[in-house]
Specification:
Layout (H helix, E strand, L loop, with lengths): L2 H8 L4 E3 L9 E4 L12 H6 L4 E4 L10 E3 L3 H16 L3 E5 L4 H13 L4 E3 L9 H8 L6 E5 L7 H9 L3 E4 L7 H4 L2 H8 L1 H8 L3 E5 L3 H7 L5 E5 L6 E8 L2 E6 L2 E8 L4 H13 L4 H10 L8 E5 L2 E6 L5 H13 L5 E6 L8 H15 L3 E5 L1 H4 L7 E4 L2 H10 L6 E5 L8 H5 L1
Parallel strand pairs: 1-2, 2-3, 3-4, 5-7, 5-8, 6-7, 8-9, 9-10, 10-11, 15-19, 16-17, 16-19, 17-18
Antiparallel strand pairs: 11-12, 12-13, 14-15
């Protein structure tokens, strides 16, 4: 069936779904396949739960006239998203980067939503399935759509740009993330810069931190670049004031006090400010938006337990973000610092070296109680005063003996480590 005909049926639906457990009435269900599941087998359940149409790629799944048989469900989902993107024709802002994507996306959304009708990627639905789902949730009455793009291999950002066709874009940073797929930091830079390549080829606009030398080098001499940072010649002049612990900055003679910790979050806030300025959001609205934003979902949250302050940053980790969190902790005016650090995943052959480098930094800069959790950290060479645990279960008995009083605690690790469980034990 041609994509324009499928699109007409899509417009009859109230929403879309790829999970029969989350079907809503009159939605369009896409029967995706994975390594351990086949959505075609759940078509009857989808209809029972209220689906109006089911897109399938198995002839045996066609059980009534409301089944749409296609060659490949995933490809159809992606093509439909691109068709819809062109049909509604709203400005799209896309972002990628090694760290801070979701926080930055939420900040941009908060700033623009103070003045415009905006919708953004929900959570981190930022891959070859999430981006199409995001685009299909946009409507033509929006002033802006914000699309987060993630990648763990080359050409993925290029592919996602082909679907979303962004009008504006930014890269949060280049860091040591997904080295297993990218091979090296150079590989990371090349892959993330596919967003710049698309924007430049199509003469679209780029927001860029003028103090990030790697990004300035990648964008080169491109006329449709909107710069931000402390230099007077920037399109948007923003000055970092402090991060002890929350980031404070100055813009347009106005001090903005965020609820985000760590100077590594300055760039994330600054680009949201720059985008707000570019699209004529008033300074007062920018200030209110930034100051109202509260991090959640284990991302740089500060939790107070009596006299103890816990920095919960357990959503994800890579060598760049881990080092940034440690440097931030080091400069905080705090006594009795405790570190609970979990393994960093997807580092491939670099895993041993990167974990050891983190250990070396810790032992050169902290006299704190250091607890390392995971198979990779367990293999590192450490001082006798550094505690190592192969698993979270091994750590639990030790946690129950701790009396954390008047302390500052950092909890950080990759998502698979689920170190937020430490809070339950503490």
């Amino acid at each position: 069936m041609k994509i324009d005909i499928i699109y007409q049926k899509f417009k009859e639906c109230l929403s879309i779904s790829t999970d029969t457990r989350k079907i809503s009435k009159d939605c369009m269900y896409f029967a995706l396949k994975g390594e351990n599941f086949d959505g075609n087998k759940f078509v009857p359940q989808a209809f029972d739960n209220g689906a109006k149409y089911c897109v399938v790629d198995d002839e045996q799944a066609v059980i009534n006239q409301h089944c749409i048989l296609v060659k490949d469900v995933l490809t159809t989902l992606q093509s439909l998203a691109n068709y819809h993107r062109n049909a509604i024709n709203i400005p799209i802002i896309s972002l990628t980067g090694s760290n801070g994507k979701t926080t930055t996306k939420e900040l941009i959304n908060t700033v623009l939503a103070s003045t415009y009708k905006v919708k953004a990627t929900i959570g981190n639905l930022n891959n070859h399935i999430g981006v199409p789902l995001t685009l299909l949730s946009f409507t033509k009455d929006l002033d802006f759509g914000i699309v987060e793009m993630g990648a763990n291999h080359q050409k993925e950002i290029e592919f996602l740009c082909g679907i979303a066709q962004p009008d504006y874009g930014l890269i949060t940073n280049f860091g040591k993330a997904h080295l297993e797929g990218f091979g090296s930091v150079e590989g990371v830079i090349k892959a993330k810069s596919e967003l710049y390549d698309y924007l430049k080829q199509n003469e679209k606009s780029v927001f860029i931190n003028s103090e990030d030398a790697k990004q300035i080098k990648q964008i080169g001499d491109y006329s449709k670049t909107i710069t931000f940072g402390s230099k007077v010649k920037n399109d948007c002049v923003i000055n970092f004031i402090s991060a002890n612990p929350f980031v404070t900055l100055k813009y347009d003679n106005t001090v903005i006090n965020s609820k985000l910790i760590g100077n590594y979050n300055y760039g994330n806030i600054a680009v949201a400010v720059a985008i707000g300025k570019y699209f004529n959001v008033t300074t007062i609205n920018i200030k209110k938006a930034i100051e109202s934003y509260l991090p959640d979902n284990n991302r740089s949250e500060i939790i107070k337990k009596g006299s103890t302050k816990i920095i919960l940053d357990a959503y994800n980790a890579n060598p760049t973000s881990m080092l940034a969190a440690l440097k931030n902790l080091k400069q905080l005016n705090a006594e009795n610092k405790y570190l609970f650090l979990g393994d960093m995943f997807e580092l491939g052959t670099e895993a041993e070296k990167e974990h050891q480098e983190i250990v070396n930094f810790i032992e050169s800069n902290f006299e704190s109680q250091v607890y390392l959790i995971g198979q990779n950290f367990n293999k590192t060479t450490t001082k006798p005063t550094t505690y190592k645990f192969a698993t979270f279960e091994d750590l639990k008995p030790e946690l129950k003996t701790l009396q954390l009083k008047d302390s500052t605690v950092l909890i950080k690790g990759s998502r698979g480590m689920a170190l937020e469980r430490i809070l339950d034990v503490l």
